[in-house]
Amino acid sequence: MTTEVAPHELLRLKSHGGRLALATTVLGSGIALLDGTIVNVALPTIGRDLDADLAGLQWVVNAYALTLAAFILLGGSLGDRFGRRSMYAVGVAGFGVASALCALSPSVEVLVAARAVQGLCAALLVPGSLAILQASFHRDDRMAAIGAWTGLLGVASASGPVVGGWLVEHDWRWAFWLNVPLAVVVVALAVKFVPESRNPLASKHIDLIGIALAVVGLAALTYGLTALSDGVSLRAVVVGVLGLLALAAFAWAEVHARAPMVPPSLFANRVFTTINLVTLLVYAGLSAALLFLVLFLQTVAGWSALEAGAATLPLSIIMLVLARRFGTMAARSAPRPFMIGGTLVAAAGFALLAVAPRDPSFVLHVLPGISLVGLGLSMTVAPLTGTVLAAAPDELAGTASGVNNAVARTAGLLAVAALPPLVGLGGADYASADALAPSYRVAMLVCAGLLVGGAALTAVGLPSRERTPCAETPHLDHAAR
Fold this sequence. Notes:
The protein has 481 residues and is an all-alpha fold. The protein has helices at 16-50, 54-82, 84-103, 108-136, 142-170, 174-177, 179-193, 208-228, 234-256, 265-268, 270-300, 305-310, 313-332, 335-354, 362-390, 397-422, 433-461. It has 17 helices and no strands.
């Protein structure tokens, strides 16, 4: 085996140690996810308290997203090189310290800087959590563990607005102080219950050129796409194009590097490449659809922000209940039919939401569609994530997780930036019910089409069970590939 976790030390999900290791990864990732949703609720209060304008508040959100996206590939690679548990613990500890700095911020400028540090630390812990599951659990339990991880994180996402609203009523700074004791608990659990694993074959040479190009490319692309979501501007286009050029240079540099940060051999694996393309389509459709749904419910249907946000709660609840079960079923049979069926079911949910009337009933017009989306994602996400990790050698689990996370985040940014103008929605049209209603229906059908495309790509590009990495021993060495 190519990791430092001996076969007899691999965790079983039903064991005491396995449950605690899973809880550790969920809590750490949950802190990062919960913080993002809480901050969105706290923005108006932060603006009043720190006398911040709209641009400053946007950077409170974007600074975190920018550094997270820019460093996530590096975070996964560092875990493989120096130890996944170690980098995860460093990321969580750093996130806690940065959260304290956010809570103590006397101005919006200091808050933005602290949020950027939060994003950098999240780039260590987000890919690390999945890499730990892949490297530490017995292969028969990996997909079930990933399914449980997915479902429990859905709870964190759904509870964010509720917890945030309660905390903000007292003091917005508590939204950040909350992370500090949680980070201490997670680090203690990680040290005690999570086995260390790393790539013992990693070169001592550090790919400085690759690191620089990846960080610059992802940061510039993220900035460009984020800026484009507010309208087309020359600066956004130029920065986005520079990001694409830097990423192209990164790909070239990795092919020629002595010890690349992201080995090109990963993409020589058809399953790994296919699953990342499916990830691109699925997360593009999901991100844009949820954005348009919330806008439709508020602008066209006249629902409050709380009512519109609560309308998506069934999605998270369904994933909490079903994601682990589908992960277990996919591990016992094959991920391919679950991914095909799941993306088609979610596409049907988006199509159903597209035909909701302008004065929708939650029970009749929203609940059926959002429930289908939740069911479809429950069938899809754990098999998708488990397959992309299993397609890579175990010693590159962190790198594989970083790549997949980067693809998912870029997909969401790209969809949110590109889809509104594609369906004829301008900057001022978000506040117009007459302009938004027809664009909403087209956008939801486009999102459904993206998921159908994901199903088709899975059917064509993902082999049958006999050749699927999830069904085989996933810890193959480089020579075998």
